[in-house]
Structures are given as C-alpha cells and as structure tokens.
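Input structure tokens:
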C-alpha cells in the first residue's frame, strides 16, 4: 500500500511550460481519473510520475521522493501503461505478459511468474489468445495485452494512459471494472487518464481536471457540472445524476458551433 503525492510539479518541453504547479494525491485503494482536453498535459503528468521525464517539484511515494528510488525499485512499485504502447518483438501473448514481470524474472521463470501470467490472462478472458503472436492481434486485443502486462506486475501504483481507447463498449466496461476491483482488493493507488467522461464519472473515486497544465478542479465526480464542461471543453452539455448520484453527461453542442442549438 503506497500513497502517491505530487507537490508543485512543473515541467517544460523546450522551455514551453506544459505542467504548471500541479499538486494532487492518489490514495491506495482508490481510482483517480485525470481528465481534460487534448494537450492539457495529462500524458506528460503520467510520464513524470513514471520517472520517464524529470520535472521540478516533488513526487512522493509514501513520503519518499521518487528521485531517490533505485530504478529497479521504482519499476517494481510503479506500473505505467503509455498511450502508444506497441512492440515489434516477435513474441506470443503469453511471453509478452510474462515480460511484464521482468523485475522478478531471473535466469529462470518461476512457477509464481507463470501462475501470475495465466491468472491475469484468465481474469481478462484473453487466455485463448495466449499462443497468438502480438503482431497478429487487432488494436483492441493488443491493448488488452498491454493492460495485462501492466497488471501482472502487481504494482503498488498503477498509471494507465487511456487504457480503453481502442476497446469496444463491452471491453471498456469489463476492463474498468477489473481495474477498479484490483485497485480496491490490492489497495493499489491507481491514476488513469480517460477521455470518456461518463466512464470516468462511473469508475473513478476522484477526478482531477487538468486544463492548460493546471489543475482546474478536483474531487468527487460531481465536479463535472455544465459550467465546468463549458469552461474546460467548450461544450454545452446536460448533466443528470443517476440512481447512485453519479453524473451522466449528454453533450449537446460545441460553444463554437454556429449550426446547432
Ligand atoms: N515530446 C514532446 N516534445 C515537445 N512537446 C511535447 C512533447 N510531448 C507533448 N508535448 C506538448 O505538451 C503538451 C501536453 O501534451 P500531453 O501529451 O501531455 O497532453 P494530453 O493532455 O495527454 O493530450 P491528449 O489528450 O491529446 O493525449 C502539448 O502541447 C504537446 O504538444
């Protein structure tokens, strides 16, 4: 169980500021969704937390700066699934998932590693793909395998960048249910970038709305109000609450649109 804290995070690409003083927390056993328009800085934020980019400010795991972690300890604790994960290696699905446990694989694959790979393939209902080659899969199947690679490591912190972007509706729901279930069961601190606002409202405990490199608002899904959607996304939308008090968003028009009411 590891608490993730981010304090005054700043990052620039070639002196262009992309993250401007971000502070937020992700609690163990909770799913926090980062939402916001294109180019808001969502992927950059995840890359900073994963240790791929070196920002200013603090990223703390249980109060310890990630800069002070040895690389192997950071990759053991934090599992990161990027937006553009692809592999050119000629591997089967099973081998690819097994590689997700690279931190524990030594010269010999343990029974525990094999079991963990099978278990995750089964729980995602993709075990029938086990012997297929990764480069022969559909985009959605490949995305499922990438998610399996991230989960098989049994991380303390899970960072997922648009993990459901290529999935059909049934798989989107199944995967988000699985991620939510594992987050609660294993007390993972899960941070997930999602564009689909209704799914974010339904599956996340907390939302962080990024806009132009800053936290515009954060809190329970009820932060998604028509005013926020208009201000952040430039859309007119209706927001109703379902039986559980979860906001359901119906987009109506772009505020720029001249043709729609
Ligand atoms: N490698 C890079 N070099 C220079 N600028 C970059 C690089 N990667 C991203 N940027 C810029 O940083 C800003 C934030 O990009 P980022 O990918 O973090 O946004 P995002 O919120 O994840 O967007 P999207 O929803 O479109 O995926 C954008 O203006 C983008 O053009």
């Amino acid at each position: 169980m590891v608490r993730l804290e981010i304090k005054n995070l700043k990052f620039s690409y070639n002196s262009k500021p992309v993250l401007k003083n971000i502070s937020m927390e992700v609690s163990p056993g909770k799913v926090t969704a980062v939402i916001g328009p294109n180019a808001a800085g969502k992927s950059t934020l995840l890359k900073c937390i994963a240790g791929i980019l070196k920002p200013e400010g603090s990223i703390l795991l249980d109060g310890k700066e990630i800069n002070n972690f040895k690389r192997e300890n950071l990759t053991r604790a934090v599992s990161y699934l990027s937006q553009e994960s692809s592999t050119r290696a000629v591997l089967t699905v099973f081998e690819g998932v097994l590689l997700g446990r690279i931190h524990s694989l030594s010269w010999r694959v343990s029974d525990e590693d094999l079991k963990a790979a099978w278990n995750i393939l089964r729980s995602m209902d993709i075990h029938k793909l086990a012997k297929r080659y990764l480069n022969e899969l559909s985009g959605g199947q490949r995305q499922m395998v990438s998610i399996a690679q991230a989960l098989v490591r049994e991380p303390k912190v899970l960072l997922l960048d648009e993990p459901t972007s290529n999935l059909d509706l049934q798989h989107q729901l199944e995967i988000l249910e699985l991620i939510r279930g594992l987050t609660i069961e294993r007390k993972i601190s899960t941070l997930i970038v999602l564009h689909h606002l209704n799914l974010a409202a339904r599956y996340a405990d907390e939302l962080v709305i990024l806009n132009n490199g800053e936290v515009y608002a954060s809190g329970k899904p009820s932060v998604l109000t028509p005013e926020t959607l208009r201000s952040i996304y430039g859309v007119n939308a209706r927001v109703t609450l379902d039986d559980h008090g979860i906001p359901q968003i119906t987009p109506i028009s772009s505020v720029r649109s001249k043709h729609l009411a």
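The pocket of adenosine-5'-triphosphate is lined by residues 13, 18, 36, 38-44 (CB under 6 Å). The chain has eight helices and twelve strands.
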